[in-house]
Amino acid sequence: MKIWNELIQLRSENQDLSQRIRTCASMIVACLNSESSDKEKRELTNRLVRVSSEIGDYRRSADAISEEARLYIAQFGEKRRNGIVRIPKELKKDLMHEHLVPCAFLSQTIFSSRPSREEIHKLLIEYGIRCIVLKEEDDKINAAKLNKSMPENWQLGHDPFLRYQLAGINNFTVKERHIHP
């Protein structure tokens, strides 16, 4: 839970991210209050949840990284003069972008509870965290049937890393900003 609290703090302090999430939260509230069909509201809410934490390149703006993905980047990444570490294009397929809590879960939570803009902002700051994992790790999540859902009985307030732990992925760190996978 220590890394989760650290990520929440970093996300809360990131003014650009906070403003983007606030804007998405306002759009979600407007969507939910619209006369659109429930199907349309669900679809739009899901899309807004998905993009709310992505500033620019979705891989570069990820919040956390698995230890295996970090080691992969350390081994195969190319360090530029400006200190940025990039992965060659042909190796990017080995890295996956993940939402700690699947967007579908967050969207459904928002759709069913109809929280305020401020509550949505808080929810997305705390649970909209994104990470980079290796393709092999993503396969473990899929094999555990946790790619689009959270573990049974999981609820807000519980550790969002639980589905990774259940898939055997236990070590995450804050993704350093100079890593651009």
Task: Walk me through the structure.
The chain is an alpha/beta fold. It has one domain. 50% of the residues lie in helices and 12% in strands. It has eight helices and seven strands. The protein has a four-stranded mixed sheet with strand order 4-5-1-6. Strands 2-3-7 form a three-stranded mixed sheet, with helices on one face. β2 and β3 form a beta hairpin. The radius of gyration is 17 Å and the shape is globular. The two termini are 25 Å apart.
- State the helix count: 8
Largest sheet: number of strands, sense, barrel closure: 4 strands, mixed
Round the mean pLDDT to the nearest integer and report it.
90
Number of domains: 1
The count of β-strands is 7
First and last CA, distance? 25 Å
Shape: globular
What letter string, H or E per element, gives the SSE order?
HHHEHEEEHHEHHEE
Which sequence of strands runs across the widest sheet?
4-5-1-6
Structural class: alpha/beta
Helix residue percentage: 40-55%
Could you name the key traits of this structure?
181 residues; four-stranded mixed β-sheet; single chain; 7 strands; three-stranded mixed β-sheet; 50% helix; alpha/beta; 8 helices
